Structure prediction request, 218 residues.
Amino acid sequence: MTTPVSSSGFFISFEGGDGAGKSTQIELLAEALRQTGREVVITREPGGSPGGEAIRKLLLEGDANKWSPISEALLMYAARADHLERTIEPALKRGAVVITDRFADSTMAYQGLAGDLGEKAVTTLYQLVVAARGPDLTIILDLPVEEGLKRSGATGDAEQRFESKGAAYQEKVRQAFLEIARREPERCAVVSAKDGIADVAGRIREVIQTRFPQLLSR
Ligand code: TYD
Prediction:
């Protein structure tokens, strides 16, 4: 598998349940990639552009049942469309590596497979908004739910609305990400988020070294 990373940019998404340590691992990977001289843009969903961040506030505040599943998915996709147009695509055109903390697999996992919406509606939204503009590589950080909830509780993470949906829902989310990885093994890599930060960072580095070695070379 070879991708021309210098001329067209490279798009990586990180996915996983709450408390898997995505943001720490994204920072470490970005640092390693910057050392090769590349421009790296770190971004997140929901959010990542002024419009996306405005929608993020609507999504993450309030009680667990504030939005119906379809309203929630439409808001996620409204934010995603803006994020793609205003942040991700311009950066990829400049030749940057874009690393996003969550992307479309989160909607498939949280709203589609674990939520009540079902995968058909989410697939329709995906085809309408993302289509061929999806990630080149998706790292799914996998952790038992209890451990993830313990970790995010300990760091006092701001996000409460989705975490308040309970452990059974989080377990469905975990299984949904594993299912997505089984369906798309070429794009997705499941990485265990157990053990220390350096161990997990090493596993992620190995995935990139194996699949896209040109990303880590100067
Ligand atoms: P955030 O504080 O960014 O959490 P985390 O650190 O776990 O990424 O909150 C994002 C929450 O929104 C998270 O619980 C997952 C949820 N989410 C969805 O349900 N669907 C989506 O499409 C996205 C992007 C996020």
Remarks:
- The longest strand covers residues 10-16.
